[in-house]
Design goal:
homotetramer; 485 residues; alpha/beta; 8-stranded mixed β-sheet; 44% helix; 14% strand; Adenosylhomocysteinase (chains A, B, C, D); Ado_hCys_hydrolase_NAD-bd (chains A, B, C, D); S-Ado-L-homoCys_hydrolase_CS (chains A, B, C, D); NAD (chains A, B, C, D); one-carbon metabolism (chains A, B, C, D)
């Protein structure tokens, strides 16, 4: 696939796998709309006032059917949008096609190379001569990283003509980033300066990206305000937990058809994602072993009847391994070598460094047998025993299945919409400094309330007297900031 | 696709979708073998003595990866095999290709028409001039039905030249059966006579087929001995229950990506299949309502915290409907009209008459929108509200996903292998009359024991003293025949 | 407590702990009646026709509140009743008092010695000069055993004056039985002859008693017809399973207040009782390990995510041990010595020989510290480490708590009522031979249906057309005899 | 029981129900110690340095076996202790006796009147002429309230001789508080002044008390530093959740023996306590309906498959009602009148105003039938239909059972010990102002880690490289403050 930007008849740029899948994508988008009441309510509530009028939004977030509904909510509210995916395997090509045809500039396809991935990210940021973006929707923080690295390079270049040196790192992905920036510098040495000046803020979707933002806030390098969407209760306690409870077994089943019942499954990490994964595996009839570094999370696992051990304790008897840590070097090739024949190894965390794919790929004599896309059997030469790695160690629920279902993504994405509206509305008020913010609790509660009716729930109303008794307003928010749900 | 039998280079007949998928099928078969210890043990135990030497086996059973391992177990034990699927949507084309290329005559593809389906069944029974089959593996009883109907027709024809009259029934499928038999009569009016004389017996896989066999036994029309594999404990209490617990959500997810959590799900029927479905939906976070005719099963559902209501009570508020009854006319078009927009309607029972597909298809003004194969949205003209029907009302776990996982099918299919061996071994002994038999308990226990080691289980051994105390042999069987598990 | 029979003002015999608890017992009986719709329906349906008019019923079954409702159902239907408990710890003294005062001759108290236990059993069988009983309600078969042993002894005595020799056995309980019979022979050497001639039949409540009955049927020694109530579906699949799921944690909590979450619990045996226990412990947050001899039950445990090991594998790391086998010598004193300090050991099976209490009691230097009645800490001299034994190794749910709750016992006891009516109605018809019978399925279904309304359930009705399609009557029974539920 | 303080032979004051139960209490305390590794580790770690040397601690917290282990941990660390219970029904008399005899001044018994309750609280605060307390352990804040109200009254009295007027409120409990303070003023008008000056701080156990503290902090009336123990993760996410999951069914079973399976249970409130209750009821086989005011908690309930409705929607069909809100007026007498006969109504929240007991007690013609202590049937005159109220609307798990089990209380109470040590250590440093504090996360993690070993858990250790990658210290704390677990 040559990396040439294409253009729709209406003049919108795009690069997707197969435009003929647009109709299929549209049908699934229509189904998803029914399952995404938060986003549809946002269209109804905010659409008439066009709050995003004039706003140019760049998004880097899995280009799925659910994201399509998010994008079309942003455009319904007046925004102009360019989009890329934040993972090389997570794009649903029919979703990308429908959006590219109908709504926004999309640069994404399932199975990008890393080179292609960063090319897409650059395109999503490239608003042409009129400039942009005004706002960023990020997931994992790659676009935010690109802008920060770009600006850093431009400053150095400005100072003394230094160009970024890809060979200065052995991180394959950063080599590409530096190359892109270096090549860009030759064309427009002020590109990221202009971008920085214009950007009103970013809303970040996930734990990993949020961690980067807090690091930048801590060292003072953050270039614009950021809203931490991940830590809205209606995001992290729903999407991360219930989303993974749904999509982990979905990914396992689509990739391997393996029976979960009776198996020993190891879940590395017992945060929200790990809790969702462990719950799904336990309910499916597996015996679940958790690995944890945090004694509190470990004690939670024990209270749920799960065993807490180290990876070394179970590596040779378990059948399924899932990493959920957000950390790196969780399952190394030396661990994989000890596993049972056809043990399944996968990662549901954001980045692909939880599993030592590099170690596996470079293991002398190892043989890779691709059963089907995203399902590989790797055979070690010593014992001719193989393990099955899903989605090349990347996000298995998006690589092997379709990610989280629409309903729970509606919670997450309604937070995104609200965050974007908030940033744009306050763009000149100075309300938001170059810091990381969480949405106020009453908006978090609002997101939840938009999703109750569809499930037939009826809320109880506080009387004034009761509200006073517990010192909250009748209409909420109902909990102190530190409440853990 | 023209209905022409093709021939491999080795001369074996077949008709499959795409022979180029054989390599992919072979890879998945190899994975499945690791998950099917019962079948692999059978190969190890019985292979050397070639118990099926000389036996010609016709099978009519979902042509999946798991069935491929069954077929190759039969051939490894010396049998010659011809195979068709017992459902128009359940074939996995790569499995069919691998078997056709490597092991047996296969006539099956995903998405057969009914016409094609019965053509395939006829082909599987057609052993050419040398005659056959000797044994039948049946699932749902269609091949057994064809033989019984065929013989009936031949007798009438013999008597007075009467030919079967397809117009005598308004059952679309029986019209095809009569047509096939009628056309066959012209070629060979003794075909089914010869078959009946030769057939040693049938082993039947599922509840629905077993029900037919007991009806034939009751009215004295059964033509050969039958082993009811379905009612082996290691079949019905495993495959039906744990298999469906796995494959129902798998089918729902692959077809619709719908979030199960928070939904109201109606499970019609609370037998083994219904129990598995209800468990899966409850564990996925749905609120499950059960419909039942049997007060005992209803009381079981209540004890599990499920609500027991009639369909009419919940038809307009539920989100997901699953039929598991083995009966007919469970969800009628008049029910479907009352459902919420995008309610999901599916059947996991063997035949497609649980859901009134005929009523739906012929509803005036109804519109069918195919989202993707096996996932259709049907829109009623009155309110423009749609429902989503999976696999055209047929077995949704095989139509929309890949059916039950290998491990649990290993239990079921090891019973099949044992049943076939038993029938063939006793072919001349008179041990089996024209009746329906269940495998003896010690064989049932053996099937279970073949599956324990792989899951790391260790059995406790009875002492002689303990065995005497509870009046069982030390080596089993351990339970009376009426024990319910 | 001197073993003297007392007499109410109305002249009814009894021996209970404390007659002043009768009012309390009556209040709890009234609560229980609301929870026992099957028994109350039986009173409404059969009361007017007084089917037990003239019948004298002896019952040996835990003298609890629930049994009180059973007894008063029998008397409401016209029977005269004498009752004893079938376990030395299971009597609820307030229930015994209320019944003794108001309805039937009761000989039972919590904490009988074995000597007292058999004295009570004898009293329950002693209908005085006018003779009796006509019918037996048995649980575990002790009264049935007494009659069979009694008759055997009378025959020997008649033949050559041989008296039973208590010293011929080292089973402490049989020594008492022989002594009682021997002493009785001196008074009335035809007592059991007369009893046998009169008794119409027995209905047996539990697995253990049923096992004995089948053994007697097999060796031809059964003296009268027996109805196996245990194997009614509405008994064994409800009382054994859901009853234990309720009463096991109840007993653990009342006896020890121990936190179940986080513990390793070993359930010996995975039959219906074991399934209920394992489910309760798993739900409470324990990690459950199952021991099994039967590969089928073991595979079921695995499918539910439970580990299957031998006792030896986990004896030194588990926290809670429950025996549910109906077998003997499951946990020996040599096992107990290896346990962690304060490991809890208990039995929920019928007899107290699952746990080696004799070995424990006679262990040199062992020290028993009674925390409270039925909760003992036994300290081994070697390591000063103790284990906690509940209810002296007897039925812990009745010894330490109040047994199964009313609702599920209503299912079991409605089967008892129906069985007793059936035996009495057919007393002269010859319908029942000296064999063991199970109630017909339509009565089983009836028992279930009597319990649905109270839980708000609505059954679906079969159409004639549907009933024909699955070959069952519209009004049931709906399943073949071999159906396992 | 005359309200006279008694004195042990060693001269320690006390007032308990029955000193003869001390031995029994001691045995159960010894069992509990094995289950409370956090407290026992604290004794081992801090005992040698006697950190509480010279400290006088007043505690107002359920006088149970678990609290006994807490008290003896405080004394083992050098403190002198006086104690009362914080609920009229929660004292375990054998625990009170053992502590009174062996370790601390106890004023508590099960079934205090409100008058007696406040007398006990006063006694616990009364350190005699030498003055005290230095530290407060509070649960619900009653002792803290007494001191604050006392000081307020002393100031008014000082100003113009005004005495508190019990008739100024219609809250029965506040009338008693005012009376006590009024009477005390006559004896020592500076009592609470002296107390305030001396008190170093309070550590508060529960949500309700914490709410009061934050209100006082907000309006500037808080007299001394407070540590909010409730919001330690190892308290509120364990004790509130897993403690209630254990003790709710325990209380239901001991009070009513009702079968939970099949019932409709309403849980009012879905906070941590409600989550634990709902989980227990669901696992027990009930169908659970949740009532909520907070849309986020409501959505959590839905994701777990629970129905969310208002009380009015289900009041007439549910069987069991549990209030967990911490609010008031949740179930009113007008609701109770609509309930089914023998519906069970109980409260597991801290105060008894969740259920309208006053309305029930004063309902014209209502009849109260005490089945047994803490289990009352209330019969309405109109329809002769009754409801069953547990523990007179107070904490049912402590009133009807024994509260939370030792293991989870070990987590809570280790936080208490750490909080008390912290307050005492920093008594002169000025570290703590008159505000509400939460323990730092590393201490929270420490509490958890003290409980892992006993459950056989093994933690994974972060490498330095991994710790840096996620920006945490190798030894923790591992999560940001806002993390919700």
């Amino acid at each position: 696939m040559a990396l040439l930007v294409e253009t729709t008849t209406s003049g919108r740029e795009y690069k997707v796998k197969d435009m003929s899948q647009a109709d299929f994508g549209r049908l699934e988008i229509e189904l998803a709309e029914v399952e995404m009441p938060g986003l549809m309510s946002s269209r109804a509530e905010f659409g008439p006032s066009q709050p995003f009028k004039g706003a140019k939004i760049t998004g880097s977030l899995h280009m799925t059917i659910q994201t399509a509904v998010l994008i079309e909510t942003l455009t319904a509210l007046g925004a102009e949008v360019r989009w890329c995916s934040c993972n090389i395997f997570s794009t649903q090509d029919h979703a990308a096609a429908a959006i590219a045809r109908d709504s926004a500039a999309v640069f994404a396809w399932k199975g990008e190379t890393l080179q292609e991935y960063w090319w897409c990210s650059e395109r999503a940021l490239d608003w042409g001569p009129s400039g942009g973006p005004d706002l960023i929707v990020d997931d994992g923080g790659d676009v935010t990283l690109l802008i920060h690295e770009g600006l850093k390079a431009e400053k150095l270049f400005e100072k003394d003509g230094t160009l970024p040196d890809p060979s200065s790192t052995d991180n394959a992905e950063m080599q590409i980033v530096y190359t892109i920036i270096r090549d860009g510098l030759k064309t427009d040495p002020k590109r990221y300066h202009k971008m920085k000046d214009r950007i009103v803020g970013v809303s970040e979707e996930t734990t990993t990206g949020v961690k980067r933002l807090y690091q930048m806030q801590a060292n003072g390098s953050l270039l614009f305000p950021a809203i931490n969407v991940n830590d809205s209760v209606t995001k992290s306690k729903f999407d991360n937990l219930y989303g993974c409870r749904h999509s982990l077994p979905d990914g396992l089943m689509r990739a391997t058809d393996v029976m979960i019942a009776g198996k020993i499954a190891v879940v590395c990490g017992y945060g929200d994602v790990g809790k969702g994964c462990a719950a799904a595996l336990k309910q499916g009839g597996a015996r679940v072993v958790v690995t944890e570094i945090d004694p509190i999370c470990a004690l939670q696992a024990l209270m749920e009847g799960l065993q807490v051990l180290t990876l070394a304790d179970v590596v040779s008897e378990a059948d399924i391994f899932v990493t959920t840590t957000g950390n790196k070097d969780i399952i190394m090739v030396s661990d994989m070598k000890k596993m049972k024949n056809n043990a399944i190894v996968c990662n549901i965390g954001h980045f692909d460094n939880e599993i030592d794919m590099h170690g596996l790929e470079t293991y002398p004599g190892v043989k890779r047998i691709t059963i089907k896309p995203q399902t590989d059997r790797w055979v070690f030469p010593e014992n001719n025993s193989g393990i099955i790695v899903l989605a090349e160690g990347r996000l298995m629920n998006l690589g092997c299945a379709t990610g989280h279902p629409s309903f729970v993504m509606s919670c997450s994405f309604t937070n995104q919409v609200i965050a974007q509206i908030e940033l744009w509305k306050e763009k000149t008020s100075g309300k938001y400094e170059k810091k990381v913010y969480v949405l106020p609790k009453h908006l978090d509660e609002k997101v939840a309330s938009l999703h109750l009716n569809q499930l037939g729930a009826k809320l109880t109303k506080l009387s004034k007297d009761q509200a006073d008794y517990i010192s909250v307003p009748v209409e909420g928010p109902y909990k102190p900031a530190h409440y853990r749900y």
